[in-house]
Specification:
This protein is an alpha/beta fold. The protein folds into two domains: 2-205, Spore Coat Polysaccharide Biosynthesis Protein SpsA, Chain A, CATH 3.90.550; 231-300. It is built from twelve helices and eleven strands. The strands form three sheets. The protein has a four-stranded mixed β-sheet with strand order 4-9-6-10. Strands 5-11-7-8 form a four-stranded mixed β-sheet. The longest helix has 24 residues, at 277-300.
C-alpha cells in the first residue's frame, strides 16, 4: 500500500485489510514522503498489529513506492491496495483461493463498487471489457483490471522486474500488458473492493497524461511484437481518440472541442492516412464516439 499525504482515508483503508478473514499476511505500507499526519497514523496502527511493516522514503512517486514495497514482499501472492479504498473482508481469501485453483492465471482481480464522496456505493467496475490481450488489432485489445484490487503471483513480478517508470500515470496499464505474456488476467464476478472517487485522486487529476502514457505503452508493446512502428501522426490521433472516449464518461464540459477535432480526424483525406489500415480502423472508432455523442443529445431533447 503506497501512501502520500493520505491521512484523510488511511486509517479506514488499513482497518479494512486488518479485518480480512484470511489472517496470514503482511501489510507493507510505503510512506512516500508524506507531509501531513500520515506518519503518526502509521505508527499508531503498527503498534496495534505486528503484521504491519512500514517503509519510510523520500517522495519518489508512485512507481518508486510500489517497487520499494515489492522488494520487501515475502509472500507467494502480492495484493495491491490504495490508501483511500476499502477492501471487503473476504477479499484475500477469495483471491488467494482463486490463484491456488487456477495455475494458468497470473493476476486475479474482481469487481469494485465505486463510492463518490457523500454517497453510497453505486457502480460496478471491473476495469475493462476485454478478457484477453490482443496486440494484432488496432486499436489493440488489452485485458486490464482495477489496479488497487489485484492479486498477482510474486513470481510474475520477479520475471517482469516490477513496475516501469517510462509510462507515468499508466504504470499499471503497462504492467497488465506485460503480465498477459505470462498467463491470464482473470476478473471473476466477486465484489472485493469499494473504490473511492474524489477530486484528489491521481487518476482523475491526470486524465490526459494517463491516456497518453497508456497509448505509448500499447505502441511500445506492438513494436516489440515485430509488427512495425506506429507513425507519430497515428499515435497522436490515437491519443486524441482515447482522451475523447475518456472525457465522454467523466467530464462532459471538455467534450465539445474534442468532438470538433474528431470530425477533422474522421474526414482527413491525406493519402498516407487514407491508405493506412490502422488509421481506417481508428476512424471507425471516431465515428462510433461521434454518433454516440449526438444520439445521446437527441434522446435528451
Amino acid at each position: 500500500m503506497p501512501v502520500y499525504n493520505g491521512e484523510r482515508f488511511l486509517a479506514e483503508a488499513i482497518d479494512s485489510i486488518l479485518r480480512q478473514t484470511l489472517v496470514d499476511f503482511e501489510l507493507i505500507i510505503i510512506n512516500d514522503g508524506s507531509k501531513d499526519g500520515t506518519a503518526s497514523i502509521l505508527e499508531e496502527k503498527q503498534r496495534s498489529d505486528s503484521r504491519i511493516r512500514i517503509i519510510n522514503q523520500l517522495n519518489g512517486g508512485i512507481v518508486s513506492a510500489l517497487n520499494a514495497g515489492l522488494a520487501e514482499c515475502r509472500g507467494e501472492y502480492i495484493a495491491r491496495m490504495d490508501a483511500d479504498d476499502i477492501s471487503m473482508p473476504g477479499r484475500f481469501a477469495f483471491q488467494a483461493h482463486y490463484l491456488d485453483t487456477h495455475p494458468g492465471c497470473v493476476l486475479v482481480g474482481g469487481v469494485a463498487t465505486t463510492r463518490e464522496l457523500g454517497e453510497t456505493a453505486s457502480e460496478r467496475v471491473t476495469g475493462g471489457p476485454h478478457k484477453r490481450t490482443d496486440l494484432t488489432v488496432f486499436p489493440p485489445k488489452i485485458a486490464v483490471s482495477v489496479h488497487p484490487l489485484i492479486m498477482v503471483r510474486r513470481t510474475a513480478f520477479e520475471v517482469l522486474g516490477g513496475y516501469r517508470a517510462e509510462f507515468p500515470h499508466a504504470e499499471d496499464y503497462d504492467l497488465f500488458i506485460r503480465l498477459a505474456e505470462l498467463g491470464t488476467l482473470d476478473k471473476p464476478d466477486e465484489v472485493v473492493l469499494i473504490y473511492r472517487r474524489h477530486e484528489d485522486a491521481i487518476s482523475i487529476r491526470n486524465i490526459e497524461l494517463q491516456e497518453r502514457s497508456a497509448a505509448r505503452a500499447e505502441i511500445f508493446a506492438i513494436a516489440e511484437t515485430g509488427q512495425g512502428p506506429v507513425p507519430e501522426w497515428l499515435f497522436e490521433a490515437y491519443v486524441r481518440y482515447r482522451i475523447l472516449r475518456r472525457y465522454k464518461r467523466v467530464d462532459a464540459r471538455r467534450i465539445e472541442p474534442l468532438i470538433r477535432q474528431a470530425w477533422r480526424d474522421l474526414f482527413d483525406l491525406t493519402p498516407t492516412r487514407v491508405f493506412s489500415r490502422r488509421y481506417s480502423q481508428l476512424r471507425m472508432r471516431f465515428a462510433k464516439v461521434i454518433l454516440g455523442y449526438y444520439w445521446k443529445g437527441l434522446k435528451r431533447r
